[in-house]
Amino acid sequence: MPISPKTAMELLEGKRIEIAALSDLSKESRDVVALDQQSVGRLSRMDALQSQAMAKETERRRALALQKIEKAFERLESGDFGYCIECDAEIPLKRLEIDPTATLCVECAAKKEKAKK
């Protein structure tokens, strides 16, 4: 394994804590916008609704990131963590330090990105 299980767990847990903290901070902006026409103007309501929509999208992305972290924990338990799911090569330590949920080596990630274009 290219990275020790302890280091991998620390990286993944750190990422999980970071996402949870950000989620707690943005909870208020995801709350339902009250449409009290007496106290709030039309543009203010539109701004509030737009902010709420952006906050909900951000939370959706955080939920996806947490799913990726859980899948990485599963790969860690099965012994597959740190190996590319395409070619089975070791994923470089620096890549895993940047993104501990990475499932592709640099070469396979580049190929996938190139295929998107």
TrEMBL record:
- What GO annotations for molecular function exist for this entry? zinc ion binding
Pfam families from the entry? zf-dskA_traR
Highest rank taxon of the organism: Bacteria
Segment forming the signal sequence:
none
What Gene3D superfamilies does this protein map onto? DksA, coiled-coil domain
- Does Cell inner membrane appear among the keywords? no
What PROSITE patterns does the record tag this protein with? ZF_DKSA_2
Q: Which UniProt keywords apply?
A: Metal-binding, Zinc, Zinc-finger
Which intervals hold domain Zinc finger DksA/TraR C4-type? 79-114
ZnF (dksA C4-type) intervals: 84-108
Protein name (record):
Transcriptional regulator, TraR/DksA family
Q: Supply the source organism for this entry.
A: Cohaesibacter marisflavi
